[in-house]
Amino acid sequence: MAWTVDPARPGPEARLEVSRSRFIAAARHLTAPGDLAAWLAERRATWPHARHYVWAYRLDPGQERATDDHEPAGTAGAPLLELLRERELVFSGLVVVRYFGGIKLGRGGLARAYREAGEAALTAAPLAGWRPARCLGCVVPYPAWPALERRLAAAGLEPEVEFGAAVALRLWVPAEEAGAWQAVLTAADPGCRVTAEGWHAFAAPSPHPQGGD
């Protein structure tokens, strides 16, 4: 299982001072690259006179980026991205704002400072379990709906429901359980099928073993 910053609870800021340079770090759940652009605009508005706005993100495994924002190459964004990989975080980003204090830290000092700031932000951030998932789509006759609704509720699953001539469902389930749930739904709708694949958060996520709550 992978992990993500809790979508409902953005992490608080973490602050670090090294040789008079101030580092302000934060972690957030992201669903697309466009989310990062909006978040960066917020950070720039909150901290308008900073020298550097360094960031890294991971969405699906393999879809990841980082920037040093004019720090020496490999000393700022790369340590943040490595943190996200080490903690198996997906759909998550880190932004670290730096106010230059007039003393150069050197390549090693910069990398350590950015990593320490990122670690502090992730330790403060609430994290949730994030699992590969499948979305099942089906149309259930009304007589079959009450029993199916109770069964889904007992499993902690919340489908998207539209009521029309019948009950149309979109249900995200853990990938490893998709076959079993498809069999359950097929009993009510032989046309039940997988309509999408991706990552999804489920009820009562497990605590992350490396930080957060």
Describe this structure in words.
Pfam families: Impact_N. It comes from Candidatus Hydrogenisulfobacillus filiaventi. Residues 20-122 form the Impact N-terminal domain. This is Impact N-terminal domain-containing protein. The protein has 213 residues and is an alpha+beta fold. The protein folds into 2 domains: 2-125, Ribosomal Protein S5, domain 2, CATH 3.30.230; 131-200, Alpha-Beta Plaits (2-Layer Sandwich), CATH 3.30.70.240. Helix content is 29%, strand content 33%. The chain contains 5 helices and 10 strands; from the N terminus they run βββαββαβαβαββαβ. It has helices at residues 33-46, 77-86, 106-124, 145-154, 178-186, and strands at 2-5, 14-18, 21-29, 52-58, 64-67, 92-99, 127-140, 160-163, 167-174, 193-200. A hairpin with a 5-residue loop joins strand 4 and strand 5 (64-67). The longest helix is centred in the middle third of the chain and has 19 residues, at 106-124. The two termini are 16 Å apart.
Output the number of helix runs. 5
CATH topology of the largest domain: Ribosomal Protein S5, domain 2
CATH superfamily of the largest domain: Impact, N-terminal domain
Q: What global shape is seen? A: elongated
Q: Could you say which structural class the secondary elements and strand pairing correspond to?
A: alpha+beta
What's the architecture of the largest domain in CATH terms? 2-Layer Sandwich
Q: Mean pLDDT, as a whole number?
A: 89
The major β-sheet equals: 5 strands, antiparallel
Order of helices and strands: EEEHEEHEHEHEEHE
What share of the residues lie within helices? 25-40%
- Can you identify the CATH class of the largest domain? Alpha Beta
- Strand-residue fraction? 25-35%
Q: Rounded to an integer, what's the Rg over CA atoms?
A: 21 Å
Give the uncertain stretches in residue-range form: 203-207
Distance between the termini: 16 Å
How many β strands by DSSP?
10
Number of domains: 2
Organism: Candidatus Hydrogenisulfobacillus filiaventi
GO biological process, one term: regulation of translational initiation
Pfam family, one: Impact_N
Domain Impact N-terminal: 20-122
